[in-house]
Amino acid sequence: MNRSAKFYYVQVAQLAEANDFFQNRLGMDTEQTFLSEQEKCILVKPDHYTSIFLSEQKHDYQTAKVLIPTTDLLEDYCKLKANGIEFSRMPVYLNEGLSATFSDPYGNEYIILEYRNYTED
Fold first, then answer.
1. Total structural domains within the chain
2. Strand boundaries in the chain, DSSP class E
């Protein structure tokens, strides 16, 4: 599968709280950085291809829906459930693969997707 880099800008109410959620509840690597000289943000790297910039400020290119690829959705789903993450959509098979959806404390939606080719033998 050919994957290209994905960049998401997501607005959160409080960076420290968002950092705690992504690092401790979701188990994702985070790094404090800057989007500009005045604007701090948190960089979240759920995999090698996806970058999520969390900011308290509104941005032109921000989104409230983020797609996070995974190689094992069921394992990730069970780990996240064990960490108290509530899913709005349980694992379901889509044309693209196996998917589940949850939200962060700010209402942003995260779709975890295990890409699958159902036409392979």
1. 1
2. 6-11, 29-34, 40-45, 50-55, 65-69, 87-93, 97-103, 109-115
Per-residue pLDDT tens for 99-117? 999 999 999 999 999 998 7
CATH classification at residue 91:
3.10.180.10
Give me the residues paired with residue 50 across strands: 6
Rounded alpha-carbon distances, angstroms, from residue 34 to 28, 43, 91: 19, 9, 35
Question: Is 41 inside any structural domain?
Answer: yes
Domain containing 71: what range?
6-115
For 58, the token pair is: 């509104």
List, for residues 56-78, the tens digit of each pLDDT value: 999 888 999 999 999 999 999 99
